[in-house]
Amino acid sequence: RTATANLLEEPLPAFSTYPNPFSDNLDLQVNNKSMGNMKVSLINQYGALICEFKYMKAYSNIFPLLISAC
Fold first, then answer.
1. To 5 degrees, how large is the angle CA 63–CA 64–CA 70?
2. For labelling, which of 10, 47, 53, 67 has a CA lying 20 to 30 Å from the CA of 41?
3. pLDDT tens digits, residue range 29-52?
């Protein structure tokens, strides 16, 4: 048997966010199978750190970012 891949399939981005645009809350969807500790850093257009979030990625791949808490 020969395994073939559909070369027309687009790979998933590493992550996605929604809703867009957002105001106080943002959901981050991480599209990989890695498990473990994860840190998300929000950085403004000038390169300054705005806020950091730490999560344990186990079974869920969607993480809420409470921007209003920054």
1. 125
2. 10
3. 988 888 899 899 989 999 999 999
Residues 6+ apart with CB under 8 A from 31: 12, 13, 14, 15, 16, 61
Tokens of 53: 């979030």
- Judge if pTM exceeds 0.70: no
Question: 59, 45 in Cβ contact below 8 A?
Answer: no
DSSP assigned state of 66: E
Could you tell me the sign of the dihedral formed by the alpha carbons of 36, 41, 42, 45, in that order?
A: negative
